[in-house]
Amino acid sequence: PEGTPWDKESNLLIEENQIVELSVAGRPTASEIDVTFDNNDRYEIEIVGAVTRKVTVGPAKKKITGLARYVERIDPPVRAVRLVRVRPVSGDMAYTMGHLIIR
């Protein structure tokens, strides 16, 4: 949840030069992405399917410590999603992802 400490053991810590690539089973359609990241950093999410779309989120607009939640519409939706890539763009080099859900 929002406010979870950024360095909690269950979170995925991401180094500044790393890209997290997730294979997506079943080739779903993505019309929304729900994700938590460290609140004071900026991240790029690339959704690869029939077309490729990029969404950039962060830093959080509200005062919060730890993880911030972002729910972003993908418009138009991406059909037949096969990959999702997450890349830190800028921040304090303590990058973290708590969860990522495609709807």
Shape: globular
Number of extended strands: 8
- List segments where confidence is low: pLDDT < 50 over at least 5 consecutive residues: none
Strand content: over 45%
* pLDDT averaged residue by residue: 96
Number of helices: 0
Give me the strand/helix succession: EEEEEEEE
Q: Give, in spatial order, the strands making up the sheet with the most strands.
A: 1-8-3-6
Oligomeric nature of the chains: single chain
Radius of gyration: 13 Å
Give the CA-CA distance, first to last residue: 18 Å
Structural category is mainly beta
Largest sheet: 4 strands, antiparallel
Write a concise keyword list for the protein shown above.
103 residues; globular; four-stranded antiparallel sheet; mainly beta
Layout of strands and helices, then pairs:
Blueprint: E1 12-14, E2 20-23, E3 30-38, E4 42-48, E5 52-57, E6 67-78, E7 83-90, E8 95-102
Antiparallel strand pairs: 1-8, 2-7, 3-6, 3-8, 4-5, 4-7
Would you write up a description of this structure?
This protein is mostly beta strands and 103 residues long. Helices cover 0% and strands 55% of the residues. It contains no helices and eight strands. The strands form two sheets. The protein has a four-stranded antiparallel sheet with strand order 1-8-3-6, with no helix packed on it. A hairpin with a 3-residue loop joins strand 4 and strand 5. The protein is globular, with a radius of gyration of 13 Å. The mean pLDDT is 96.
